[in-house]
Amino acid sequence: MKIAVIQGPNLNMLGIREQHIYGPMNLEQIHDQLKNAASQNGVELEFFQSNLEGELVDRIQECLGTVDGIMINPAAYSHSSIAIKDALSAVELPTVEVHISNIYKREEFRQKSVTASATTGVISGFGPFGYHMGLIALMQIISEIKAVEEAQQQEVTE
Questions:
Q1: How far apart are CA 35 and CA 11, in angstroms?
Q2: Is position 99 annotated as part of the catalytic site?
Q3: Domain residue spans in the chain?
Q4: Is 106 helix (H, G, I), strand (E, B) or coil?
Q5: Which of 22, 31, 77, 132 is an active site residue?
Q6: 110 marked among binding-site residues
Q7: Catalytic residue, candidates 31, 99, 131, 132
Q8: What is the pTM of this model?
Q9: What angle separates helix 53-62 from helix 82-91, to the nearest 10 degrees?
Q10: Per-residue confidence of the chain (158 residues) as pLDDT tens digits?
Q11: Is 77 an active-site residue?
Q12: 132 in a known ligand binding site
């Protein structure tokens, strides 16, 4: 099982930026913890971070046929990027959107996620632990999809 972890703008500044909102962990520490959890479950992770919308769109498109699912924190683009939403819709992969802060307790413009409608689900407000929740959710969703596909394949061969 392979999952792409895609991180949006300013997440490279975690640990420095607004610690009262995002906490003291930096992105590398979050990724290291995710790698540990993934390896214990036989899951391969691919990490990508960009501050550029087009690069995020390109990376999402590259996921088609190469990964089983996507975990994405579109960050500020969550609230405005039709391009990222459309890319997620196009690849039709199980996708979990993660937000470190609770976007529903923040400024009004942050309380709506444009990209969420193209995802399987959203995890918001649990700090870096939200990424672990996203990993668990994706492992379950992907396992269920694979089980259904295997059952359908068995029916065809019988």
A1: 17
A2: yes
A3: 2-157
A4: coil
A5: 22
A6: yes
A7: 99
A8: 0.92
A9: 0
A10: 999 999 999 999 999 988 888 888 999 999 999 999 999 999 999 999 999 999 999 999 999 999 999 999 999 999 999 999 999 999 999 999 999 988 887 778 676 899 999 999 999 999 999 999 999 999 999 999 999 989 988 888 77
A11: no
A12: no
For the record, the structure tokens of 47 come out as 């990490």
Contact 48, 5 (CB under 8 A): yes
Q: Does the domain spanning 2-157 belong to CATH 3.40.50.9100?
A: yes
Q: 21 labelled as ligand-binding?
A: no
Contacts of 133 (CB under 8 A, 6+ apart): 98, 123, 126
Annotation-wise, does 106 bind a ligand? no
Three-class secondary structure of residue 67 per DSSP: coil
6 is in an annotated binding site: no
Alpha carbons 137 and 106: distance in angstroms, whole number: 25
